[in-house]
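User: Before I run my own analysis I want an independent prediction to cross-check against. Here's the chain; please return only the structure tokens and, at the end, one sentence I can use as a sanity check.
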Amino acid sequence: MTDPVEPSSVDPLRHAADTMRAVRDRCVWTQQIDHRALVPYLVEESAELIDAVEVGTRADLREELGDLLWQVLFHAEIASRDSDDPFDIDDVARTLTDKMVRRHPHVFAGETADTPEQVLVLWNAAKAEEKRSRTSVLDGVSERMPTLALAQKLVGKASSLPASVAPTVGEAGSDDPATPASEAELGDALLALVAAAREHGWDAERALRQRLRTLSEEIRAAEAKLADLEE
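Assistant: Structure tokens:
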């Protein structure tokens, strides 16, 4: 069987994009997939890439990076055929490049950053300039993140507020275990909490989701209080 598209000796990424286009044109299964239907595959491929990073071989990593890239190409190809607001993989790449150039002024615009902390200051400043229309530190935080990842994100957002209005997060109760001293101990502590939840018939994911909803409300209330104080 011949290659459905002409391979490029100088641009493998372009060849991959052209291959995706051919698949979209000629594969009856691929033709009926839209962005929403593709989401479960994106989640699965992301999880497989994480496995490759943490426990896989170099070959696994290369393969899973390719599978995730295929998802990006797939979404871009779907988007390119939208009748109202089309964009393609080139538009995606240009948008990404523009954003990364803005967020690295120490690389592209003459700013100086000699430490990772200084880089983060510049990054956050550029990001804040881009997102001036946002009214809350929670804007842009997806509630569909895995619950523990979302918890870590929200705790970080809460810590960015002034101490005078910030909600209290993570205070240990009298029956709580000692604070873990390492990631391994943290894993043990989390596993112990999950085991305790199971013993009591509690849903650990639901319990954390409910607490995170409360934390989100507390953060927004703190922002409102801060806005009142600044008036």
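Sanity check: The first helix runs from residue 12 to 26.
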